[in-house]
Amino acid sequence: MTTATIKPPTPVAPLQTFTRACRYEWRHLTALRSTWILLSIIAVLSLLTGLTIVFDLDSQDASTPATAADSITWTPLATQIPALAFFMLALGTGPVSTDLVTGVARTTWLAVNGRRTAYAAKCAVGFAVACVVAAASVALGALSYATTLALSGLPQPSWIEVLPSAARFIAWMGCWALLCMALSSLLRSRVVPVLLLVLWPLIGERIIGKLLGHLPGLDGIGNWLPFASGRAMLTDASVYGGDDQSFVRALVGTHLSTSAATMLFCLYTAVIALAGMWAYCRRAPKAA
Prior knowledge:
By secondary structure, this protein is mostly helical. It has one domain (15-282). It has 13 helices and no strands. It has helices at 14-30, 33-51, 65-72, 76-79, 84-87, 89-102, 108-112, 115-151, 159-187, 191-213, 226-234, 242-252, 258-282.
């Protein structure tokens, strides 16, 4: 009678485990029909962002880099955050909220036997996808913007000067994906993180900043709040002149420079993402 020999499991390197988790997240994301429907909608709307210049063809600002940058980055100055961010909410919150809320689907942390690795993989894939989507959106918007100007006989803006704004927009969208996942992990809900991410940048932060500014020693605290720095990261008020600059700074809500605001927003994102990892590793999924 022979007995089967059970070999001890082969240890897997942390990098290999992380790579497997990222591959699973990518396959899961691309297998969803809703992902491709959403990306198709974003592609169409990206072309339309460049076409919005037709409403300003009679303006002398139509060919300025600032106007071009604001248009192809989904008008963050008018809407306070890029309009693309609202469309990316589903992709940003979905991977974590599905795991922690339903608790019934096959999850990454079960596949790799480590929640920290699973969360890191979700963040890495989410950040990469958001950056790629933002970059593709900028390219499509710039193409339609340049085509509209060419057909109208207007000069092209200096696209080299638009590149820094486009790069900051791409980085901002990557940070947005991390914030979506972190808040989903911290709040363990599908709806509440979405409401918070919509209402806080538009209304809540300004109200809180005003209230805190009345407290002793907190005058000017509004300049240092997360999405005030995020708005300054997206819109460089220094390129505007005269009264326009004062108006733009009022909309942005902070006097921080673009470089300082970029570092501060990335720092906020890193801290909140780490808090999300702590919550994801600490709490078990809800029972189905």
